[in-house]
Design brief:
The chain is of the alpha+beta class. The chain has 10 helices and 28 strands. Strands 22, 23, 24, 25, 26, 27 and 28 form a 7-stranded antiparallel β-sheet that branches. Strands 8-9-10-13-12-11 form a 6-stranded antiparallel barrel. It has a 6-stranded antiparallel barrel with strand order 2-3-4-7-6-5. 35% of the residues are buried.
Length: 485
């Protein structure tokens, strides 16, 4: 992933901060000099025992993820200006959230993946010894992608395993508190089963003023490879999913960011059910007001959020919302920042109305805007797929032929023909054929694919044991995926 001041990937390192111990020591300063050594020793042992116990509980639920696929070259040669795309291998982390093998990680960790390998750490039995069936390095599984949200940078993958150690993401998780002690688990630089310690620096940081997303900020040492790992509190409860760091050197500088656990808990059921996130929308775009923007547009205030776009004929347009309207409140709740506006909308369900107070010039107005479900390409494709007519049994998918209308709805499509994967179906080959919802199959074994019948016919010609190579397009990148018939 390209180096920049924002390394949008996270990872953790093996370290334990002295400040926590120093804090405990300072708390015992009232003791007499004669009593101090024993008291200090007791406190240090209590801290040590508590951390050891927490690590033993949480570590078995943290996995290493190794991804093989295609992506842009991270460091082109000097003087080279063209974009290089080649085979890459990336390492990240994940959190087991269901003993049946469901794992939460970052979307950027598995982006462009052809093969996802998950290393589950060995479990320690009641005797204190490792499970001999797993080996000292743990057990390796191939995973399939269940759902992903690029907007939230979250993904769910599945391995065929059972009775795994897991961290709960049920509703009601305690929110992060500024100053509380937290621990980051993951595989920084590929170093498995690593834990670091720090505190919550801020509970709702907004690194990008034009993005509604907020993060838990922590000074816990996080490095490349920690992406997708867990940030937990002193009770071992999930606080967030480590996601990126701000760094000028590429390494930890004490500015780490995690997706809040409340966001993860809300997104997870939708990623399981739909493979993506269903978000309410009003057909308008808002952004943060900066002093420069306020001065240039001669606004009456230099803070808050402003409407920058209104979709013609959409709910906001019909309700009377206009470009350059300044949003004051939603449903009576003051809106001073973009995250507050997004949060107010997300509390509504599709079909409900939001009362939005605005400032238009010097006039105070209120508009009532209905919320609609944001359209999603995969949803419309799934609706077109018949479970019988569109089934491609050897691949365990529902396929839809790309028509001119579908091609026009997919502007990023490189080749305007083929068969698009509308959905994956259950079957013995599901985990073996590395296809994802939204993939477009353009060819098989060097021959072009333009119809469902053509794809089925080409597959039936392959005998058991034959090698099959599908040319597919995924996220505007074309490459091959192979398997044995």
């Amino acid at each position: 992933m390209p180096p920049s001041n924002r390394h949008r990937y996270l990872r953790s390192c093996l370290a334990i901060f002295a400040p926590a111990a120093a804090f405990l020591l300072s708390g015992a300063s009232a003791q007499t000099p004669a009593d101090a050594p024993a008291t200090h020793s007791d406190l240090l042992h209590q801290l040590n025992d508590s951390i050891e116990s927490l690590v033993q509980r949480v570590s078995p639920a943290i996995v290493q993820i190794q991804v093989t696929g295609y992506g842009s070259a991270e460091e082109p040669e000097r003087g080279q200006t063209e974009l290089l795309v080649g085979r890459r291998r990336a390492i990240g982390s994940g959190v087991v959230v269901d003993p049946a093998g469901y794992i939460v990680t970052n979307a950027h960790v598995v982006s462009g993946a052809q093969l996802i390998e998950v290393i589950v750490p060995p479990r320690v039995g009641t005797s204190g010894h490792l499970d001999p069936a797993q080996g000292p390095q743990g057990k390796s599984y191939q995973a399939r992608l269940v759902g992903t949200s690029k907007e939230l940078d979250l993904a769910v993958i599945k391995i065929e395993a059972h009775d795994l150690a897991a961290l709960s993401i049920a509703s009601g998780l305690p929110p992060a508190r500024q100053g509380e002690m937290v621990f980051a688990f993951g595989s920084p630089e590929g170093l498995r089963n690593t834990v670091t310690m720090g505190v919550v620096s801020a509970v709702a940081r907004q690194p990008d003023p034009d993005s509604p997303l907020v993060y838990v900020q922590t000074d816990t040492p996080i490095n490349p490879g920690n992406s997708g790992g867990a940030l937990v509190n002193a009770d071992g409860k999930l606080v967030g999913i480590n996601t990126f760091i701000l760094s000028s050197s590429g390494g930890n500088q004490g500015l780490g960011f995690a997706i809040p656990a409340t966001v993860v808990a809300s997104a997870y059921p939708q990623l399981l059910k739909f493979g993506h996130i269903h978000q309410p929308a009003i057909g308008a775009l808002v952004q943060t007001i900066t002093p420069e923007l306020a001065a240039a547009l001669k606004l009456t205030r230099d803070f808050g959020v402003i409407v920058s776009d209104v979709v013609p004929g959409g709910p906001a347009d019909t309700a009377g919302l206009k470009i350059q309207d300044i949003v004051l409140s939603v449903d009576g709740n003051a809106v001073a920042a973009l995250p507050l506006f997004a949060q107010s909308l997300y509390m509504h369900k599709t079909g409900e109305h939001a009362k939005i107070d605005i400032l238009r010039g010097s006039d105070h107005l209120q508009v009532e805007v209905p919320l609609v479900e944001r359209p999603h390409k995969e949803d419309s494709l799934t609706e077109q797929a018949d479970p019988v007519k569109n089934l491609v049994r050897p691949l365990n998918i529902l396929g839809v032929e790309i028509t001119l209308e579908i091609a026009q709805s997919l502007p990023e499509l490189r080749l305007p023909s083929g068969v698009i994967v509308a959905a994956r179906t259950l079957g013995v080959r599901t985990a073996e054929v590395p296809l994802q919802t939204g993939d477009v199959i353009h060819g098989i074994n060097g021959a072009p694919v333009t119809t469902l019948d053509g794809l089925r016919e080409a597959l039936t010609k392959q005998k058991p044991g034959d090698a099959v190579a599908l040319q597919i397009e995924r996220h505007a990148q074309i490459f091959y995926v192979s398997f044995t018939r």
